[in-house]
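User: Can you fold this complex?
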Amino acid sequence: MEVIGYISQGFGVALTPLNLVWCFIGVFLGTVIGILPGIGPAATIAMLLPLTFRMDPTGAVIMLAGIYYGSKYGGSTTSILLNVPGESASVVTCFDGYQMAKRGRGGPALGIAAIASFIAGTVGVLGLMLVAPPLAKFALTFSSPEYFALMCLGLGMVVLLAGESMVKALLAMLVGLWLAGMGTDLFTATSRFTFGIAELLDGIDFVVVAIGVFALGEVLGNLEGREGTQMLPVPKGLRNLMPTWQDMKDCRFAFVNGSLVGFIIGVLPGAGSTIASFISYGIEKAVSKHPEKFGTGVPEGVAAPEGANNAETGGAMVPLLTLGIPGSGTTAILLAAFILWGLRPGPLMIQDNPTLFWGLVASMYIGNVMLLVLNLPLVPLFAQILRLPAYVLYPAIFGLSIVGVFSVSSSLFDVWMLAVFGLLGYGMRRLDYPAAPLILGFVLGDSMERALRQSLMMSQGDLSILVSRPLSATMLVLTALILIAPLFKWANSWRVRAIG
Amino acid sequence: MKSRSCMLFIGLALAAAAFPVHAQGFTPSKPIEFYTHTGPGGGGDVFARAISAAMDKERLAPVRMQVINKTGGGGATAMAFLANEKKGDTHTIAVYTGLWITNPLMRAEANVTLKDLTPLVGLVREPAMLVVKSDAPYKTLKDFIDAAKKNPGQLKQSAGSIGARDWVVRQLLMTNTGANWAYISFPGGGERIAALLGGHVNIMLVEPQEAGEHIRAGNMRVIAQVSDTRLAAFPNVPTIKESGFDIPTVPQVRGVVGPPGMPAEVVAYYEGLFARFVKTPSWKKYLDDNLFEDGFMRGPELARFFDQHTDVTRNILKEGGVKVVR
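Assistant: Here's the predicted assembly.
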């Protein structure tokens, strides 16, 4: 196959000492950026752009891509250890990751996250290498009706994330949907729920909500209890700080699930890594033999979303490199970088620049290996953070959260909103409302409403467009099944009780 | 006492030094803050970074220009920031686009208009291309308009938000011809192109550079140019006027403004800087690569352009049934 020939050429390019250095700088920076909450890969790449003008474009794209997928590795660190989502896609990792840390299994959680990221990242690059063009064509068949159906499927996951009280979960989801609607309507340019405040014209930033509800809510909730003692149990011994073989076995399916779901959703220009991690998490819970344990700290609950958000980076590169269409916010700035370097992104870019493309693909393999080697040994080190007493850790979390939120748009208003959501998170914790559905509603609400309205505009108000197209019909049927499934379980248990 | 009068003298000297020195020939002494209202990767952001890079390369300014993103409210946040917090600042400039004219007309919260800021230079006019998928039955704009008249409301255009340039062009065409087709907003250029290439919409407006690549690959066909004269890169594509539709050409404009209260010599400095800048080979190359038109305007000409364009846009918005607030 000619692919082998191309990729060997690519390795030839990627393994030159200079490109290896760029790759390492990229993945290292990416990891650091991922760990720091608030600032993300897009802003970092934007800041580094002026430096890249004097570089060879191949080396530059190797470094910038390294920042992109490297940040997904780092994002899980603060999610697991501190319940602070380092990156918007890492919010799902908080669910089980932080619970694992609370039970003294923070080290294994970090290790599983790194391994899942490595496997999924590699699968993502494999996909980019082998099936990019046909997959890009497939992505083009997706339009607003299909996106709407996909978001419905994602929201259907609420049922799976509900926990004991379905009503509370649905209420939280509705609040999330409402918050998502705040801002300016795209189609009519009217302001919705902006209360006349100019800063709300673009809606609320995801980072503010996620960090507020998760991190600050958690800290405020814990303040009522102990003081000054060691916050979380940290076992001694290296073996307890790394994932066990049993963990790895448990996560077999999660590795596959995360990789495939993440990659495919990444290819779709309108869907992001957060949706990919939610859906992957939902699927994992749906097929698990012990779904009730999700949310209490199971390794698969970390492996699936972490894998998904890494494979998504490989997927997002597909439309970028094969069509010149960015698949996510970070790929949009990569597109801008290509233009500024004088490359012409579009369908012919790979043809015109084979060394760049294959060098980039080869460097992504190398980068993933570098990241695994960087992250795994650091796991026992990071796990020691949990030994810090509460009076050190909580203010640190507060400070990190505030600085992280401020770094997003240099807006003090965002910091005040952070406080509001912190209080909301605290209230939800006290009244036992799950936070996951709120975040899910918030992430999906905007895109889902947009997709529905675009679909109706396309069909002149005819709702049947959603079911007349095969892809969207399939996903809507799946959603309906997910929603009905608990009824079967309930009917079954009622029958069992009636008989027995 | 001697030490006290010494202290007084030193104190006065320091105080005098602390007063800003209004030199006759202004030159920047610290990095210039170059604001843009889009996020990283957005149109204004890329534009600002390209200027900053080219200025650096040509060494026209003694300091570098640092691009800072101030997103929000369709430009309202950036404009308010300039007017309220950077009044009189001599080291702050910002990229304006057509949105800075349209947005204050439509949103009550966007209460800073271009009249409140200091116009410096207009830099480019961006033409656009009306494109269809290459297997569509429309070979000319007339074909499309005829089809739209036969099936009112059935054909679809993927585009940006209300008030954006694609909306204005559609408004003008629909009023001129009596045809009617749907306008579907997508938040990102990538999604709009994906909708066209996937066959979910029939037509869209793209930037010439984007169109160029997809045309080269055979995916798209250009049926008309939104431009006064044919671009050199597209010699065989008629302009809208040449296609038989007499509507004013709506350029997407970009340039540089400063905060209110800029001293006259500072304004003169920036105008002079950019006047030299647009003559440089880097800038000419940038215009060529991106197929932009040189729309250089300075000072009073730019201020007149803002007023004119605001009135024209206000009328178009009103005709299109959009609520205009000022």
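Chain B has two domains: 31-126+251-319, 133-226. Chain B touches chain A through 59 residues (CB under 8 Å).
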